[in-house]
Every structure is written in structure tokens, then in C-alpha cells.
## 1
Amino acid sequence: MRRVALAVAFSLALPARGEEIQLPQPAIDALTQIDELPSTAQLDGAFGDQALMNLQMIALDESSIDPGVQLRAVRALTHYCNPLPCSASDPVHTTLTTVATNPRYQDARSGSDLLMLRAAIESLGILRVPGDVTILVPQLQHASRDIRAATAHALRDLGNTQAIAALRARYQQEQVPQVRIAISDALRVLGQPI
């Protein structure tokens, strides 16, 4: 009964476009943990049977959600794609690709927008949709070394050998040791060690 009440209360709090989102306290509690992602059970307890829909809404919000809560929502979405690898048409995947291809995040150079891009890239790697190579490969050229390293790890996790040529080309240009190590690891996993 409590779950239903929370879901109803939260759905009533859904804003019109551009208005501030009001999260129920259990959702705030679940999405403000610092040391770990909330479990599916915690999220289901916080949102009732509307957890996936609410996480999607939080992930896609561009104005009113605390960036830390939004980051954890992006990362928590991966809990709702079972079994892995995820289908390209799964709502979780669709949400994460929307975040990863949002120009606001792709063009970010610092701050929470850059962290959102990194979270989306890492989450896409977890979902292991081979076609995401087309979304991820361009991020090997990002100005941020953290984005380039996260992209190399995500490409490794995808397991799509179509990424090999792009990884090799980036490795030849890359000056940052952290990124070179990530690329080398990705190539090793993909069966093409440097």
C-alpha cells in the first residue's frame, strides 16, 4: 500500500515541461547515497512500480534536478535492463543514448554536464549494445581525458571489434598516459593488443 501511495504521490508531483520536479523523500534518500548505487529493491521501494519511468524522467531533466541525484539516476538505470546485453530498443538504452548524444553534455568541458556525459558513456558500456560503437567512437576525440578514457573502457565492454581501428588511431595520437592505458586495455580485450 505504501508503494502505491508513493507512486501516486510522485506521479501527481510530475511537473509540466520546464517546471521543477519534486521527488518524494524515499527517492531522495535512495538517490543521494554517496558510496554506492541504490539497489533495484531500494529504487522500487522509493518509486513503487514506477521506478524505471521516474529514473528516466530524472535522467532526462535538464533544469531542476540536483546534479548528484541525476548522475545516480543515470547510473541506476542499468539495473533495469535485464538480461544483458540490453536490446537497442529497450527504454533504458533509449534514455542513455539520449543523454549521451545530447549536445549540452557532448560539448561540455567541465562541471556536472561533463560528469553526466561520462555517466552515460559508462552506462552504455555496461549495457553492451554492439551498435553503440557509433555513439561512442566520436567521444575518443573529446577534449576531456576522462571522457576519452571512459569511452575506451565502454568500447572494451561493448566487445564490438568495429571499434578496433578507431582505438588504434586514437592510441597513436594520445599523449595522456591514463588514456593510453585505457585504450591499450580495450584493444587487449578486443583481441588486438598493441
## 2
Amino acid sequence: MDELLGRIWGDLAGRVGGPMSFRLVLQPAVAFILAVRAGVQDARSGRPIYGWAILTDPAHRRDLMREGWQAIAKVFAMAILIDVVYQFVVLRWVYPGEAALVAFLLACVPYLLIRGPVNRLMRRRGPAARSHI
């Protein structure tokens, strides 16, 4: 088990400075843009903070998760595809679990962290500010 975790950690650390490192900026940036757009739409429609609503509203949790997944699915799929190509080129092998972990970290985490605060910020700015974005 220690060998497996050591290999995974080493492989993940090697992605930072290796070839195709542009994706470490590009994919979170795309997720950020999608999250800002969704957060603004949430504020305009008076919807609750996304992450908080997922945690506290079991009646709508499934719909919220589906909506978020639909927004981020293409970025997630692209993150997996790019990581698989990276693994094949650099490691000469493909580790699907690592690809899924990297895709989650690069696509889903930024989206989840940004959407709610954008909603909150837009609500504080008031209705006039929300209508211009």
C-alpha cells in the first residue's frame, strides 16, 4: 500500500513541472469561468449559495448536483483526456484512478469553491450590479 501511495504521489508531483503543464492553469481557469457564470446566474435568480445548498437542502441536492455536473462535465472529461495523454507520453502507462483524481482536482474543486462566493458577492453588490454582468 505504501508503494502504491508513493507512486501516486510521485506521479502527481511530476505533473507540475513536466510536459503539458499548461493544463494545470487552463483547466482550473475554465472551471473558474464556468463557476463565475453560474454564480452570477444564481444571484440573478435569487438561488441559495451552491455549495451550502448541496450540503443543507436534501430535497434539491440531486438536482443541484446534476446541474453542476452538466456545467463542468466537458472540462472534467477534457482533464481526464489530457491526463491520459500525459501519462501515456511520460509514464508509458495509463493509471485511470490518477487521471480521475487529477481531473477532479483541476475541474471540480475550483468550480465548487468559486460558484458560491460569486453568488454571495453579487448579492452584496445589489440588483443593479447583477443586471450588468
## 3
Amino acid sequence: MVEDEAIIALAIQDMLEQLGCMAVGPALTLQAGKQLAAVEEIDAAVLDINLSGDSSHAVAQTLRDRVIPFCFSTGYGSADVPRDFVDVPVLKKPYTCESLAAVLAQLLS
């Protein structure tokens, strides 16, 4: 999980645990996200698109290179998704445990 807002990251971590998932992260910065994406064993990832003014594009590319499914989360809608990743599912913030579960099921199917 890559999310720059600590309170939101904790909420997402709680949701993931409610769903029976083990959260990797959270990574609160682009650099931390790139590190997690490059070395951790990950089944699927949730990436905030905007990380304190930086784009999570590099994290997404690392995950794609490793063939790890991921989704973006954003409060700005699909227009914020980088052109190279228009096929990636988007969770619109704020999202619920149910919508997170649905996108994770899609990613892991």
C-alpha cells in the first residue's frame, strides 16, 4: 500500500486486515513506495496517485514490470490516471471496505 496521508493509510490497513489481508507498508513517500514495489513479496497493491505532489507512476511501472496487479486510489477521478495506465482499476476516494474488496477480487482473479 502506498498512501501519503498517514491517517488514510491506517484506515486502509484496517480495511485490509478486516478482509483477511496482510498489509505491506504503508509507504508514505514515493521513495518508500518504489522500495516496497521493488523488493517485497506482494500479491496486489493499492497506490495513491498523488504522493505529496509526486506521481506514483514509477511505483506502478515497477509493479507492472514484476507482473504484480495493482489499482490506483484518488480523490480526483480517472482523469488523474497516467496515460500508460488507463487499463488499471481506480478506487475513488473515499472508498469503503466493500469497494476495496471488490477491486482486490478483480486484481487477484
## 4
Amino acid sequence: MNNAPINEAAYGKLLRKALPRPIRTEKDNERYLQVMEHLMDLGDRMTPEQRELLDLLVVLIERFEAERYSLSAASPVEALREFMEARGMKLAGLAALIGSKGVASEILSGKRGLSKTNIKRVAEHFGVSPEVFL
């Protein structure tokens, strides 16, 4: 799907609507996060042009958040908590993402580590590299 040809006119329309540019403020970041989440909600219905825009937004968001929220010294659980707090996500939101309230609670309390599957899910959800949670 990532190798599908891009319709330049359709992609241009998406770019004109989203107006992607370097993110400098939290407000800009939140706006792009909303666009990214909307695109991710499309799932398999996402067009090649939408996939290209999503990839671009992920790069912009990762760059902004890496500069703004240096998590290099944070543990995986601390990083997860920071991302959840920044997005206003509660335990129920994490539980919905990984499929179990009990597992989500154990992860946040430090009783359980993040599985590879859960690392992939939270990294995709927050638009960050899975390495943040390793």
C-alpha cells in the first residue's frame, strides 16, 4: 500500500487543506495530531495520498515532540504516562488501545512491562518510534 502511486492533484488538495509546516507551538501540534488521528481512523480506506500526508505529519510531530518532550532518560512507563497526560488520555483510553483494563493498570503501575504488540500499538497511536517504549 505504501508503494501505490500518488495522484499529485489529489495530494495537492490534501496539502492545501492541511497546510503542513514545521510545528512550533503546542496548538499546532494538537491540530496536526487531530488530522493524524482522523487519517488513522480511516484504516484500510486510506488513499495513497492520505497515507503520504500521514507519513509527513508523523515526521513533523515526532520532530516537535522530540525537541519539546525529551524522554531519553524516561523509562517506558514514564514515557507512556507523559504521552497519555499530554493527550488527556485516561486508563480507559489505554485499556481500549491495548484491549484490557487489567493489563493497562498493571503496565501503568509497573507490575507488567509492555509487550511487543502493545509497544507497536501505543507507538502508532502516539505517532512516535517504538524505541521510546523499549
